[in-house]
Design brief:
It is a single chain. The protein has 188 residues and is mainly alpha-helical. It has one domain. It is built from 9 helices and 5 strands. The protein has helices at 9-23, 34-41, 56-63, 90-105, 126-140, 143-151, 156-163, 167-177, 179-187, and strands at residues 44-46, 71-74, 81-84, 112-116, 119-123. β4 and β5 form a beta hairpin. The radius of gyration is 17 Å and the shape is globular. The protein starts with 8 loop residues before the first helix and ends with a helix. 27% of the residues are buried.
């Protein structure tokens, strides 16, 4: 994942996450709901159920567990919107929405457009996907918030619940940020 990140992107993403939290009057250790961030950014969040013209068969096809559909950004004017899979767990929805918001925050240019019914959906190059994955993770659990949670003695499950994240996201962020090594060094 991180092999496609441009130099300095990880540090930038952490700063951006803190900047957006500050804009929402949140501290690093507080949960930043994706829907709250979307509202701040002027992005609508919708489920396939609310899209006019999508048949029940189409809705079931895209939200089927085997479809692979998580979320997609629609570049509608004047307001972009994100369609998410309402059948995913709330933690997965948060991750998917943060990923899509990261694309919008970074103003990633689409490589190509595909159609979802009558709606144009964009696809990205691998480096944009890596950036959205990393920034999305930072938006969900910023490094400073993770350090706070570990110092508070929260378990991975408690950290996940606190930040509205999945256990997998917590473990990914712990592994990729190296916070455990940092905290151990500081305790010596």
């Amino acid at each position: 994942m991180s092999k496609n990140l441009r130099h300095g992107f990880k540090a930038y993403a952490e700063r951006k996450s803190l900047e957006l939290r500050k804009a929402l009057n949140l501290f690093a250790h507080q949960y930043m709901p994706a829907r709250k961030l979307a509202t701040h950014l002027g992005v609508r969040i919708v489920s396939p159920l609310s899209i006019k013209g999508l048949t029940q068969n189409a809705i079931e096809a895209i939200t089927d567990p085997d479809s692979g559909f998580s979320a997609v950004t629609i570049l509608a004017q004047p307001t972009p919107f994100i369609i998410y899979n309402h059948k995913h767990t709330p933690a997965r929805q948060e991750s998917d929405l943060m990923h899509e918001l990261a694309h919008l925050i970074e103003d990633h240019s689409p490589v190509s457009f595909t159609m979802m019914g009558k709606l144009p959906c964009r696809s990205f190059n691998p480096s944009h996907e890596s950036e959205a994955e990393w920034l999305g993770g930072c938006l969900q659990i910023c490094r400073d918030g993770l350090v706070w949670a570990i110092r508070e003695g929260l378990s991975d499950s408690e950290i996940a619940e606190h930040f509205g994240a999945s256990l997998e996201m917590v473990q990914f962020r712990r592994r990729m940020t190296g916070v455990d090594r940092q905290i151990q060094r500081n305790r010596r």
